[in-house]
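ok, trying the design again with the full structure, not the truncated one.
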């Protein structure tokens, strides 16, 4: 009994001293007289800010606590934007300006979200580290990125990163941009932990096993962990076929982003990141993969002068960053990139030969696959090496007079009788000399010109030894 009372008194004293400290700090306001911001101006800014962001505080204590956080953040913003000139990014009084960094971290980047790297059961890693890339790319302009969403006070960034990547690949393959349900992942995916965190790879795996995922509009976001609605779980509106991890390197990540929006893990826990409002971020954050605590989506890249950046979609609403986006510096010396953005990238896969929404008049019918083993037989009298494709060079009335060879296996022969395109970029942009994945794309790979097929006259038919000698030559 006595013991308990002692505890109570101690508690009371502690509480009173905390309260006293808070009130006295608030009353002194000496810290507000800092770099020209007066007490009155600080309060005024806070009131304006609260109004702009629709903040209403339940009680006076709460408001005072928020005001103190706000003033501290105001100092940080002033110091970093005005007194440190050469920072590549700006911080400001955004939607998180009334939170101190500890509580921000607790809610938005809890360490438990991505502490360990998911075990991957034998998925292929996309190890391609060099590829043809345009100078810049913005998937938003290609209509495959939904609007910025807001996870609210739930540690569900992983679900937003996952849906973003699936929305992207689905739109690229089918032409339909469908906003997908994070809530289904939070409620139904038991391999992840809802508002307590998760992994994008686990979410992709779950969607594959479930046979698809429902739309945002049918299974909307609540920001709370709920009971899985099995009726909605049965609605498999969008499917994916698989997923792959990207090798943790700048080059591999770039090659992946050229194909589709990519899920990445980052360290997003610093005050600098919390208050980010614009510019190319190269600020406070860890580039150690073990410090990854947040998940976002890369939707493109670009350059400003000599500084290169990723275009990154976050899930903190449009009142953070640049309308919800951040540019993160790329091409640095850091092995895992700024904020470890290269370290944990992955993406869902979907067959790209699904019915294309952009029927293009320039798509020629795919050539009949060369029937003979090797070399490829073109008509009766010519042939191409086994790893090339026969495409007609001179055609009349559906009859090919002169055959050419394309330097791709199972290539697409473009309708102009000059170019050919690889199988995975099947749409010929004859004017641009490009091969595209969708006819609306602005980027692709260069189309290749056909070379004249070798002639095989009837009298050489029996000379098999000569043919196989030539075959060896081609391969060397
Ligand atoms: C689940 O979804 C169905 C159909 O959308 C709805 O009618 C039902 O009320 C939901 N169940 C629960 C438990 O919310």
């Amino acid at each position: 009994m006595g013991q308990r009372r002692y505890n109570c008194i101690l508690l009371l004293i502690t509480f009173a001293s905390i309260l006293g400290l808070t009130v006295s700090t608030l009353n002194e306001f000496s810290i507000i007289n800092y770099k020209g911001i007066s007490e009155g101006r600080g309060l005024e800014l806070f009131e304006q800010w609260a109004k702009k962001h629709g903040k209403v505080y339940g009680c006076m204590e709460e408001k005072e606590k928020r005001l103190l956080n706000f003033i501290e953040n105001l100092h940080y913003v002033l110091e970093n934007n005005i007194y440190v000139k050469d920072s590549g990014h700006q911080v400001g009084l955004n939607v998180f300006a009334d939170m101190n960094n500890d509580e921000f971290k607790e809610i938005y980047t809890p360490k438990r979200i991505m502490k360990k790297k998911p075990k991957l059961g034998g998925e292929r890693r996309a190890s391609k580290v060099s590829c043809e890339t345009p100078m810049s790319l913005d998937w938003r302009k290609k209509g495959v990125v939904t609007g910025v969403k807001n996870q609210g006070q739930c540690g569900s960034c992983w679900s937003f990163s996952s849906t973003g990547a699936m929305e992207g690949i689905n739109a690229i393959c089918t032409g339909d941009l469908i906003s997908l349900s994070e809530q289904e992942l939070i409620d139904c995916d038991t391999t992840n932990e809802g508002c307590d965190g998760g992994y994008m790879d686990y979410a992709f795996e779950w969607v594959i096993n479930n046979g698809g995922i429902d739309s945002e509009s049918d299974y909307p976001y609540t920001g709370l962990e709920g009971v899985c609605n099995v009726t909605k779980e049965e609605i498999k509106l969008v499917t994916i076929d698989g997923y792959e991890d990207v090798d943790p390197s700048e080059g591999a990540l770039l090659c992946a982003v050229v194909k589709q929006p990519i899920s990445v893990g980052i360290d997003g826990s610093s005050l600098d990141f919390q208050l980010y409002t614009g510019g190319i971020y190269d600020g406070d954050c860890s580039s150690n993969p073990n410090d990854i605590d947040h998940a976002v989506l890369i939707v493109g890249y670009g350059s400003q002068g000599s500084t290169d950046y990723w275009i990154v979609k976050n899930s903190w609403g449009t009142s953070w960053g640049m309308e919800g986006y951040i540019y993160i510096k790329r091409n640095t010396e850091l092995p895992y990139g700024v904020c470890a953005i290269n370290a944990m990238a992955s993406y869902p896969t979907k067959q790209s030969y699904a019915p294309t929404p952009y029927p293009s008049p320039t798509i020629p019918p795919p050539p009949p696959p060369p029937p003979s083993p090797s070399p490829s037989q073109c008509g009766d009298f010519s042939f191409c090496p086994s790893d090339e494709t026969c495409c007609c060079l001179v055609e009349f009335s559906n009859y090919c007079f002169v055959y050419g060879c394309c330097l791709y296996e199972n290539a697409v022969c473009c309708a102009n009788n000059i170019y050919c395109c690889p199988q995975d970029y099947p749409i010929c942009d004859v004017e641009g000399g490009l091969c595209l994945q969708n006819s609306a794309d602005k980027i692709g790979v260069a189309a290749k010109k056909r070379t004249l097929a070798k002639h095989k006259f009837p009298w050489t038919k029996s000379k098999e030894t000569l043919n196989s000698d030539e075959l060896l030559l081609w391969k060397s």
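Keeping the full-length input from now on. The longest strand covers residues 294-304.
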